[in-house]
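Re: weekly structure request thread

Next one in the queue (134 aa):
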Amino acid sequence: TYFCSGGHLKERIKMNDEEVKKCSRSIRSMITNLRDLELCTIATVNGVALGGGLELALACDLIGASQDTQIALPQLQIGNVPGYGGLSKFVQLCGAKKAKELIFTGKRILATDAYDYGIINYVGEDSFEVDTWA
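Done, posted below.
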């Protein structure tokens, strides 16, 4: 199982405005297509899912994660807004108050907390257990 931890900000800094727009449009289109699939989609996360990597997981119908997984939407800490649906999905899954706390602070939370907040559907001991669940 493979997963995207998020965008590489050092690479993004090297891009000009047109390259950033093209990349963002491409990612937004891919996430929209994933979200709109008429099949059940399952994200299995092991390690970290930050920013766009988390937004990719949030586009899926179900999310399973190993217990040491950390998630966050840290974009606001560097002046970027999560642009692939993560804001609205956080509010939908865990309510406005908790979503605001997590988004405004960019705080990393463990899979067990994400499960308690309704963001993750399943937490396993390790990636093998999560893959078995999926």
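The mean pLDDT is 87. The longest strand covers residues 62-66.
Next request, please.
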